[in-house]
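Key idea: predict the complex, not the pieces.
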Amino acid sequence: MVQTPKPRLGIAMIGYAFMGRAHSHAWRTAPRFFDLPLEPELTVVAGRSPERVTAAAHTLGWAAAETDWRRVIERDDVDLVDICTPGDSHAEIAEAALQAGKHVLVEKPLANSVHEAEAMTAAAREAASRGVRSMVGFTYRRVPALQLAQQLIAEGRIGTVRQVRAQYLQDWLADPDAPLTWRLDKSKAGSGALGDIGAHIVDLTCFLTGQRFAGVSGMLQTFVHERPVAETADGLRASAGSQRGPVTVDDAAFVTGRLSSGAPVILEASRFAWGRKNAMRIEVTGSIGALAFDFEDMNVLELFDAEEPARTAGFRRVLVTEPDHPFLEAWWPPGHGLGYEHGFTHQAVDLIRAVANGENPEPSFAQGLHVQRVLDAVERSSDSGNRWTEVPSNTAV
Amino acid sequence: MVQTPKPRLGIAMIGYAFMGRAHSHAWRTAPRFFDLPLEPELTVVAGRSPERVTAAAHTLGWAAAETDWRRVIERDDVDLVDICTPGDSHAEIAEAALQAGKHVLVEKPLANSVHEAEAMTAAAREAASRGVRSMVGFTYRRVPALQLAQQLIAEGRIGTVRQVRAQYLQDWLADPDAPLTWRLDKSKAGSGALGDIGAHIVDLTCFLTGQRFAGVSGMLQTFVHERPVAETADGLRASAGSQRGPVTVDDAAFVTGRLSSGAPVILEASRFAWGRKNAMRIEVTGSIGALAFDFEDMNVLELFDAEEPARTAGFRRVLVTEPDHPFLEAWWPPGHGLGYEHGFTHQAVDLIRAVANGENPEPSFAQGLHVQRVLDAVERSSDSGNRWTEVPSNTAV
Amino acid sequence: MVQTPKPRLGIAMIGYAFMGRAHSHAWRTAPRFFDLPLEPELTVVAGRSPERVTAAAHTLGWAAAETDWRRVIERDDVDLVDICTPGDSHAEIAEAALQAGKHVLVEKPLANSVHEAEAMTAAAREAASRGVRSMVGFTYRRVPALQLAQQLIAEGRIGTVRQVRAQYLQDWLADPDAPLTWRLDKSKAGSGALGDIGAHIVDLTCFLTGQRFAGVSGMLQTFVHERPVAETADGLRASAGSQRGPVTVDDAAFVTGRLSSGAPVILEASRFAWGRKNAMRIEVTGSIGALAFDFEDMNVLELFDAEEPARTAGFRRVLVTEPDHPFLEAWWPPGHGLGYEHGFTHQAVDLIRAVANGENPEPSFAQGLHVQRVLDAVERSSDSGNRWTEVPSNTAV
Amino acid sequence: MVQTPKPRLGIAMIGYAFMGRAHSHAWRTAPRFFDLPLEPELTVVAGRSPERVTAAAHTLGWAAAETDWRRVIERDDVDLVDICTPGDSHAEIAEAALQAGKHVLVEKPLANSVHEAEAMTAAAREAASRGVRSMVGFTYRRVPALQLAQQLIAEGRIGTVRQVRAQYLQDWLADPDAPLTWRLDKSKAGSGALGDIGAHIVDLTCFLTGQRFAGVSGMLQTFVHERPVAETADGLRASAGSQRGPVTVDDAAFVTGRLSSGAPVILEASRFAWGRKNAMRIEVTGSIGALAFDFEDMNVLELFDAEEPARTAGFRRVLVTEPDHPFLEAWWPPGHGLGYEHGFTHQAVDLIRAVANGENPEPSFAQGLHVQRVLDAVERSSDSGNRWTEVPSNTAV
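Result:
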């Protein structure tokens, strides 16, 4: 078996903090476990601090470092731009990259406002007509257990979707002295728990059901209004300084809503849920069954089949580590679980394949825009006494 | 040790279906495991069908049977009237019994309307001034794990309450051919999932936090609008007939709200949650810890203590079967769990003790009225686009 | 529907401590929930202390009290003798009762020695020929989840039994200052963890598989050799005195063995397993599936069906509270769990029915004898370096 | 911050199947997440088939491929030899490599016989005197939850170790038509479930308690004696051919034993446990607490602290993803779990650091030899009716 070298896919990554480390790992690892049509190359990473970005390039395995993302986009050896910066810079970078003919992967949330997200979606649509691909990084879609859930729902295994219940619970802000990072600054982060973690369960609801949100009622909550300013704002873990500053985002969001089919949805996102570290849970109930997932036990999907006789019916704990489970053929024997970063690797795999095959990957910018519209409707509802707020359809773009 | 006979407490029970069986068991069993100041006597049970009520008296251990509840109330050997009928008859019976100087235990919900509940509360208040006691049967308050939860919160173990999340999930209506019983008839039951099971988590939220609801936003849902009429409407389990009739209540209720302290609450009640049989779950998060409970594992309380070092912190699975747990001294050794009916026995114990000690037991009719007001506010909110709806305080009675 | 009075079944109970309370509850409760052919009557309870037995009769609901068990056996109004004393008195009482033509229920273990158990079994066989019934109280057989497990195995749902793994874990002796009760005295209790709790998992292995033990290898362990003498030896809960005495039984037992089919078994019984309160766990693996149970979650049976496609296979958490589950029709709606004492009630139900129908109930004395032979073989193996020790078959009696 | 290039550590890997993929990932990934004193370089991989090893080198990221492991050992640019072949070739390769002054990492089990393991241990001891390091790949030691368990026990958090209970349960052979791979051939694999998975729980027992095994009683079981021969013997997943061949190893092993302190141990390894995919479970009970782990939920350690008041005591579910948990500082935020391969990465990290610091890493060959002696004693005990068999101490080497 002679190996003919595969065509390369030059990657440029903008930003190198938490998400940058996860994305770098994905680009490095994907070709080692999956048979890909293109060979991803970690061409260049960009960041503002020359020293830090150079160190990051070395540590994370990038061939070069740059301090100006615009220069990166101009490079001929870059085919795909991977945007891992905070949400306030997504629009500008993504639009420039698409304009330059580079495929784009942008971390979620797509943008900090509906307005920006609309412009990005329009740009992506236009770029697609030129064969340029774009994708938003709702990585949890590629956790194998959630891929399996989506397949089972699409196959009709639980029947018609009747209701969705989801929670995204963390506790890293429950201590009032946890430092004030950029994630608590509305101008950088757009919103708080709502946009950071609530966005994931909004997107997963759409992914799993194949539907969109028709409307929502929302209630936002900030528990702690002032915190010690973080000493290092852009690393993975910040420490608290002596000065204090205002929290300008929500700590928790509570949402009821309806999907396009009318099915009710109830969602909660909280960073104050003591003891829940990354409990992203979603349960979809259909007319003949139900599925349940909790990220704290991420290799498991629970399935209830209502067509079983009641005598032996019960939620099954399916360990999603079998060779015929999504992405699992490439990994380990049954029972040898995957971790958080595998979702990023799977995302890289699917994006590389889409680029090679000339297909538009999902989640698209349009899907990212829909999430943004839902978040926006939640905020507007919260501002006006939880009143029912319709989520405009994307056809309005 | 010579036994002097205890003073007796003559009980009359109105209704003998599901709740009647549970209450009868409680009255029979309480004095066998607990040292009580009064000896409860199962004096008389009342029901409309002479044959059925006679059979029920025999099976459940009542000394006599009656077909007219009014005659029961007149009896001199009856000290306490235990009302186990559907909600539409609660007000009339309870008021008559209190008027006649009988202590009253009324199954939840207190009534089918706020109006009735107000009248009952006023009657109870007046009766209390004459030494007559009244109590509403939110039995889950006396599950030992929930008693323990209440104690721990009151002791400050989780600090200030920050948020409450509760669900009451069942699936017995998920099959569209499940029969149309009185519980699906608004005129009998008042409301559906909201009043039947949602009422429990509203009450528990108040019980555990020691607070009341300030306001709510609600969304109600009926999934199946027509069902086969039940052949036997008042037994424990009904079978479907060939005729069909309309469902006039909600199948599921979705609520966001705030307690008197401003703490946010999110609640869901559904009888359509496939695979969840009696999953009454409540999690209270405070400033320094959290507590979680699920009735499907009713002998367990989960406790997270945020003052533990993170290295060894985690939700503890406390098996609430130790001698120093509430009510447990009377039962079995550690690890030998209790069942559903024990809550009723504990309720009987506390009510008998309150009567003997001249104290007003809880939950009071006023507390039952508050639950009713919350349910009513949810319905009104749901009727007007989820809009924020204040829950009037009881001082308005 | 006219009620003709049922024939009565007069019960005499010998002993009234922990087991006596559970048995009394069962006799009182069985006819209230189950339609029985005979009406059990709590005729008389016997114990050595006149004051205590009188108080117990009053509290537990027995019509009379006696201090001499022999007088009880002579009574014409006693049809069935229920023996709840420590194991050293079982043989004498049971043989006398059977001789007198009384049906006998004897608490487990059947006796403290194989010799006694053999004599009792011979007596039971002879009595059966006269229509007198006998049963040994391995109550856990009548936990609904274990009844269901037995049915599923008998129906072939998991195929041929391949292996059994069981543990019975408690922690009430893990504190070296826990008091020295009769359960730690070899002359009263026969053995320690082995006979008290190990006996249950030996019996359940036989019950679930329908097989007997062919041979065993055993290892016994005493962790704490001296303890403070208990102040009150026969109550439910003893307190430690100032004197100390020797522990003469095992604290834990470790067993490997084979069933009559050759299937391997691994068992552990320990009273030193910190954090495990009453974790009686058994998992039976067959050629096409497996079943798992843990008493700490006693309303659940876990079922793995290997004939499911691997993609959606997983242990199902069957909540054994459905109307078509064993004994459940009589109790509450789905999801409303049962507790420890229900096994005793179900045992009473089955025994009453067997007496009425002229059938020999199970577990029989012969089955109790087999358990005794297994325990004896474990002790002999432990005394001789774990060597393989055959369990004699009952045909040798 | 200027980056001075780190000294390199040239790695040669022998074998490239299941373990080879895991090890390659570890060498590639360790320097990307951990700050290491040496830069590992994937210099060369060796295997018998020229085509396959070349393909593997390309896929797994090795700079060169070789078909003769002896040539690899001679290379000057190789500093460390990583042996991932079946157990029958371990001794020869390891001894040659140590002789040539190369550090050695050898996959578990150390060898297929005690005799070989003794020779390897002697060679490792001699090599250590020359500064050459050796390590055996019991990777599960470096699962963070098990590292934490070891630390807590060493700190005295559960007091004196009283007993250990462990199981390693899989089901990949439960289907009698699963193919006959080299793992079922005694000449290649040494033993079956005992050596393949039982070895892990033997090693973990030693690791966690800091003790060795004094003696054991063992019982081995082969359920299926003949299987279809595998078509491809050295890939990750084999398919069944039409010919059949004999299974010459055990399918399950059942062990009771004692540690050097006398503490009892009970172990089971089975590849026939339907529904258990990789359930490596270990529970260590001490005098004041207990710890429990299950690899199917590998990011969790359960801790019971017996010094808590009983009222709030319970097993804590510690999510081992906090920055102060072993190895976690390098990875993701709390709640973002790790997967199976992380143990290999951590093993690489510790080995690289030991080499750089001139320390002997653990588990040593001597520790691997002890495991081998335990497995051997189990086999000998099983051959002679479970009789107690002492495990010779390593001082006899």
